[in-house]
């Protein structure tokens, strides 16, 4: 009987959504506690449940995989917010594009620097380069560079979670109050998860973050062919 319940896809869909909604309620009560960030809370809680109950990941995927179907349309839907706030893009596009491009280049340089500092092999460096872009693009970039695709996915998720958790705190530390700057920072560094947090902060932040996801992903794809010779030399 229990095995039949665990095999039900509706159980895992309901549990995932339920944990997310529960975290939202806890966040309202304790807004300053980053552990109650809905995305973080739901991920950690699900991992703990699967581990302590010794439930295979394939069992969870019978229901959990259906939630991934909404990722693409949800990302495309961000264009609605961009259209509603298009005036900000027209007004600030030089600063927005400069911030995104410089961020991608700085991030790539830092990955190479840390790879050399910690003695990473080429495979590991290639795995980390696409960590700040959305998963669908990161997988292709990692594969083309010879990285470990499965590890890239894990690092992308981890990057998004940390960015969503720490973003608002960093804004307070450095007194970053401009909504355009907040949105660009979250979208270009923490992709979809950062954008979810940006939407919570405001309409403008959400729109700029959605734009940043696309531009950051395209910039990394264009930059990748130029990094291959550098990778061969350094490693």
UniProtKB/TrEMBL annotation:
Which InterPro entries does the protein's record reference? CidB/LrgB
Q: Which UniProt keywords apply?
A: Membrane, Transmembrane, Transmembrane helix
Q: Does the keyword Iron apply?
A: no
User: What topology does it adopt in the membrane?
Assistant: Multi-pass membrane protein
Which residues span the membrane?
6-23, 35-57, 63-80, 92-114, 145-166, 207-228
Q: What is its main location?
A: membrane
Question: Which domain of life does this protein belong to?
Answer: Bacteria
What is the protein name stated in its UniProt record?
Inner membrane protein YohK
Organism, per UniProt?
Vagococcus luciliae
């Amino acid at each position: 009987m229990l095995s039949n319940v665990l095999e039900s896809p509706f159980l895992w869909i309901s549990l995932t959504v339920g944990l997310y909604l529960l975290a939202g309620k806890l966040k309202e009560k304790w807004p300053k506690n980053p552990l109650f960030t809905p995305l973080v809370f739901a991920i950690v809680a699900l991992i703990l449940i699967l581990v302590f109950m010794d439930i295979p990941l394939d069992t969870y995927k019978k229901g959990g995989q259906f939630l991934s179907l909404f990722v693409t349309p949800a990302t495309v839907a961000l264009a609605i917010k961009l259209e509603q706030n298009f005036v900000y893009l027209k007004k600030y596009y030089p600063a927005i594009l400069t911030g995104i491009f410089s961020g991608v280049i700085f991030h790539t340089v830092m990955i190479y620097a840390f790879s050399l500092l910690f003695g990473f092999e080429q495979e590991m460096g290639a795995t980390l380069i696409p960590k700040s872009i959305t998963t669908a693009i990161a997988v292709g970039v990692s594969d083309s560079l010879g990285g470990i695709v499965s590890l890239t996915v894990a690092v992308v998720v981890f990057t998004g979670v940390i960015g969503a958790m720490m973003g608002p705190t960093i804004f307070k530390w450095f007194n970053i109050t401009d909504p355009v700057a907040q949105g660009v920072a979250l979208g270009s560094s923490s992709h979809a998860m950062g954008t979810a947090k940006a939407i919570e902060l405001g309409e403008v932040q959400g729109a700029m973050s959605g734009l940043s996801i696309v531009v950051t992903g395209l910039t990394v794809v264009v930059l990748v062919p130029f990094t291959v010779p550098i990778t061969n030399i350094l490693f």
